Amino acid sequence: MRIVISSFISLDGVVQAPGGPEEDTDGGFAHGGWTHAYFDPEVVGGAFDAALQKADALLFGRRTWTAMAAAWPGRAGDPFADRMNAVRKYVVSTTLGEDLSAWDNSVLVPGADAVARLRELRGRAGGDLLVMGSPTLARTLIGEGLVDELVLMRMPVVLGGGKSIFPEDGGRHGFELVSCTTAGTGAEVCVYRAAGVAGQ
Questions:
Q1: Are 106 and 58 in contact (CB under 8 A)?
Q2: Is residue 33 scored above 70 in pLDDT?
């Protein structure tokens, strides 16, 4: 399985709370919902739909899974929601228990074993293992060299600080640009595939 990270991102690399003001206020973040003005159903929405269609499973950190589990089960009847609810979901956590019945087909990946377990899942045949949100998990995956593809939905806004998916450990990780599509709102959907680092 390929590990694919799909994320809204600002021009200055912030991914925090794209969906709404109360989504994640850690660090005093006050710009929740910053993607709404730039969301384009055809280009941005289409990228989400395409990524989900290629996914055999979803992968979340605890905070994102908890928010999603509170929202998606009540949206049955919409094709996208039905796919979200039906697909296997892995959640990495050190605090959640084994009971993940709040969202069907959810499986716990204990935090202490996460990197080894995700390496094992990545080695399996099948479709994509898709990460949505979950910046802490995404940083770990990139830092460990486990990410095969980034789908970045870049919004034309600078937020001045907030959570990022990119490690700050000094490590170098090469990616090549596969495609970039621009919406009328100025949003760009850019797909990057893991590649060797130039000059090494």
A1: no
A2: yes
